[in-house]
Structures are given as C-alpha cells and as structure tokens.
Amino acid sequence: MKITGIEIGDYRQFKNIKFDFTYPEGHPKEGQPLEKVCFIGQSGTGKTTLLNVIWKLIESLQDWEKFLINQGYYKLGKELNSPSSKLYGRISYTTDFSRQSINLAATVLTELNSNKEFFEILLTNDEDIEQIANTNNNTKKLGILLKESISREADAFLFDQKDQPQTFSDFVKTDTQIEKEKAIHDDRINTAGSKKVVSLGDMRSLSIWQYLLKEINQYDDETVQHITKIVQNTPKSQVAEEIQKWIDSNPRIDLAEKCLNPILNKFFLEVDTDGGNVPIALRTRQGVKINSSYLSTGTRQLLSTAIPLYKFNTKDTVILFDEPERSLFPDIQRGLIDYYTSLAPEAQFFFATHSPIIASAFEPCERFILSFNEQGEVEVHSGIAPEGDDPNDILRQDFAMAELMLQKGLEEYERYRQLAMQIRAETDEKKKNQLIAERLELGNRYNF
Fold first, then answer.
1. Whether the predicted pLDDT of 97 surpasses 50
2. Residue 125: is its pLDDT beyond 50?
3. 39 and 47 in contact (C-beta within 8 Å)?
C-alpha cells in the first residue's frame, strides 16, 4: 500500500487542507507515490497529528475482511452486490470523535455528515485494497509505527529475558509440560509477528521482539546440543570444520553485516557475533565487550529502529517515524535517512522532524512545511532548498528562520558593523589600530 494524498476537512487546527504525496510534473517519477515524506513545522502545527491520522487508518485497514464487507465486495469468499467490478482506489476515513469510533467508507466528502470531522486518505490504485486482503504472507506489513520512546524497548534484546520467569510453579515439570509451554510460547510470538500492523515504543512489544530475534534465540538454545552431536558423531579430522560451519551459521552475523554494523561503525562499535546470554551484545572494534547498561539513548534508538525495518517484510509498507534525530549527534543525522530507507527500500516513509540536517535529506517536493496563518489555521507548502543543501539554508528557506543567531550574536554583529564605520572615520593612527584589532578579534570569534 502506498498513500498518495490526505484531505482533512475540519479537525483541530486543520481547515480544508490537502496533501499531495505524489511526485510532481516534470519529475522523473512523475505521478508515482512519494517514497519518503518529511513533515516540518513549528510545535503545534500538527506534524505528529498527521502521523497519527495515517496510523489510525492503517490500524483500521488491518481488519481487512470487515473492511471489504463494509465496502460491499464479499463475505467469506462469496460475492455480494458490488457497485463496480473494480475496487475503489479512493477511501474516506471518517472519525466521529464524540464516540471515539472509526468508520471506513467509499464515499465523497459532500456526503459526509457535517458534524463529523473527517480525513480522506487516497491510496495508489485498486490493487492496494487487494493487497490488504492478501493473507498469504503473514510477514508482510501494512504499517509500522516507530514511536519516540522506542529506545526504552532495547532492553528486550540487550538483556536476558529468560531470567525473567513468566510463570511460577512449585513442582518439577514433565517433558510434556515443558513442550506444551514451549508450544504456547512459540504460538504467542508467531501471532505477534504475523500482525499486519506493528506499533513499537509503547512498552507492550516483548512478543514482537522475541519474534524478530527468534532465530538468534533458537540458535543459542541449540548450540550446546548441536556441538555435542558433532563431537559424538563426526570423525575427529572433520570436527573442527563442522563446528566452524555451525559458528558461521550464527544469525547474528547476517544481522550485523547487513543491518547494524554499518551504523554502529560510526560509534566505533560492532555487534558481538560470538553470542552469549543475550540476543544482541556490542563490542568495540578492538573487541572489548560493552556492558549494555551503559549504552546511550541514541545507540539504543538506532538498534531498536533498525532491527524491525530489516527483519520484517516491508514491501509497500507505510512506515511512520516521529523525530528520528532524537538523541543523535549531527554527524549521525547526516546519513540517517539514507540508512533507514536502505533497510526498507520498497516501503513508503513518513517522518516528522525538527532537524534541518534530517530535512536536507529530502527533495523539496518530499518536504511539507506546516505553518500558522493569521487566523491560527495551518497552511502547507512544499520545500524550497534543494536536496542535500546546507542545513543553514534549510533553516532560512524551509524553516523560515530569518535570523539564526541569538540576541547576543546579533548584538555582536552590530558591534562588528559599527567598528567598520569607526575605523573609516578615525584619524588617530593608534586608536585606529586598536579598533582594527578589536574588530579582527570579534570577526574571528564569530566567523563574521
């Protein structure tokens, strides 16, 4: 599914506003859905609200059978009276906030009840709805929401969850009971992993993390038994080779090389592929193991956002990400958008940001700048500065920051200008040299 537009009628600070998420005329991808979208705007203009609007729609679409029944297409494989042989590519998403209810309907805006606030989400084409109904691939996601608090969930894979008992028992369990509990556990995490819509960062995602890292956990559980089997059943001359094959099959290696190490290298860190008691452990490039308790919030955020994007099937997935720059130094921000989009190259990303460095990674048509008009309503326009431009230019042109310096800096710049006039007017050579020295020092300090 790809979203090609949003129309908002009357909701909070939004009044009859439209967003066109397609590449403009003359662009090499003219008419195609934007691959990535960046919402920019001062606090209160609705960046996070827009992400929530899209997310509510995606959550509604996961119940695809109910949705298609409401559209009048079929029920349990039996066709109903359909207004058209083709499925709708335009879906209205109506929210009655007084009842906290969400309805989906193929209708036009003029038919909506005037006392309801509405949003209209435009999908790419008829095939989008067919995709929603396709349950053949449970790993494919309709949407993934990465909340700003996601770094807190890193404990799910940085620490040993097996030490946290799920149930208590005062008797020794039989093999049958152990297998039954394992089957229940496997079913729980597989059910969590098969959800078409995944929200991470709400501290209720342990089963999802267990699903994402189940290959690593399974490898760790089987290692002792497998190596014992090799030693017992393999000719001595081949034991070392077979053990090395098992070590090389460690799923941590793939995750490290293709997902995590490219970004961790900027911290001079890497995944500790030797394994241990936890799914993910880090070490320095020199091999010194890092205590997970001391990892920064920024490092934790990178780990917890990168793993799901890499492990899930994100073909045509809508991925929503609020403030990806959180807790990250500017040098990491510079390549962040390219990094995330490389992990999910066929997904559609929606970002909300306050960072000009992040915003610089987008084409002007991919930036949507929100601002208040004189009536306090939100207006929107596309970006101006070219992709990859100096963040200071982004601040001036897209963030509308006419003055970048604080008041003290502005005062010093005015002093710098005044000194130039005093130097020209000064006739005493000694005083003139003093003024020149003062101006030179001031210019060097502020890079005027």
1. no
2. no
3. yes
Per-residue DSSP letter, 73? S
Q: Indicate the domain borders of the chain.
A: 3-137+313-397, 153-195+203-302, 407-446
- Measured in degrees and rounded to the nearest 5, phi and psi for residue 347 equal -90, 170
Calculate the CA 120 to chain-centre distance: 23
Average pLDDT estimate for 85-99: 35
Tell me the per-residue pLDDT of 144-179, one tens digit each, with 9 for 90 and over. Answer: 999 888 988 888 888 876 554 444 444 455 556 556
CA dist 350 and 32 (Å) reads 16
**Tokens of residue 23, six digits:** 């590449």
For the entire predicted model, the pTM comes to: 0.79
pLDDT at 55 over 70: yes
For domain 3-137+313-397, give the fold: Rossmann fold (3.40.50)
Measured distance CA(87)–CA(125) in Å, rounded? 9
DSSP state of 104: E
CB 285 within 8 A of CB 269: yes
- Please say whether the dihedral angle defined by the alpha carbons of residues 101, 105, 107 and 108, taken in this order, is positive or negative: positive
Q: Is 307 helix (H, G, I), strand (E, B) or coil?
A: helix
